[in-house]
Amino acid sequence: MKTLLLLTVVLSGVLAVTAKAVEAVEPVEGTQELQEENLVSVAENEAGVFAPEAEEPEMLSAGEMAPSVEGRFFVCPAGWERYKSSCYLYVSAGRSWTNAAANCNSLGATMASAHDLFEYNFLQQLTSRGGGSLAWMGGLYFQGWRWVDQSHFDYNFWSAQRSPSSYPCIYLDARAGWANHACGNGWPSICVKRTDC
Q1: Are 121 and 24 in the same domain?
Q2: What pTM was estimated for this model as a whole?
Q3: What's the Cα-to-Cα distance from 81 to each of 48, 49, 76, 78, rounded to whole Å?
Q4: Residue 155's domain spans which residues?
Q5: DSSP label at 168?
Q6: Neighbours of 178 (CB within 10 A)
């Protein structure tokens, strides 16, 4: 990956220098189109793919490239675990659902939601590795089931479902699907910081 990135930077630099050198020379009448075709051919042959000719970027220093790289490659804070484009934290301290949500919020996060089997399996493994078997998730019944992170409740993996009027909070079971319970139990929880928003 580093080699590919280095080759891309070197190729960009060579193309930028070549373009500057071509601009510095006064074109002979009728040769401007030929020069443009040659630049496109060089870009096709060296890069292996055709990219439409666009304004040549100035050569960038490594410091100038860092922001775009940081947007794609990130490191989770200490103690947090990365899954896809988010960072997760298993909080082993037992709290009520409301206090767990407030704790996540104080960390700049929300309680976790799950949108497919793979994400839910990750949350189960995170809970098990943390030494727990149950953990609060960010599901709450309020005129229908909702995730507190405002994402769609588009995936269901209920192992048990009780009356939401008495049991409005969702918890994860590391050995099964999720279930709902009264919100006052002091259980561990899972926080998530989304980086893809």
Answers
A1: no
A2: 0.63
A3: 37, 37, 6, 8
A4: 81-194
A5: -
A6: 23
Strand 178-181 vs strand 86-95: parallel, antiparallel, or unpaired?
A: unpaired
Q: What are phi and psi of 151, to 5 degrees?
A: -80, 165
User: What pLDDT, in 10s, does the model give residues 180-197?
Assistant: 999 999 999 999 998 764
Token couple for 49: 């793919």
DSSP 54: -
pLDDT digits 0-9 by tens, 63-104 = 444 444 444 577 899 999 999 999 999 999 999 999 999 999
Query: Domain boundary residue among 72, 96, 131?
Result: 72
| Cβ-proximal residues to 50 (8 Å cutoff; 6+ apart), any chain | 40, 43, 44
Which amino acid is it at 20?
K
Give the span between the Cα atoms of 48 and 54, in whole angstroms: 17
Dihedral angle of Cα 192, 193, 196, 197, to the nearest 10 degrees: 100
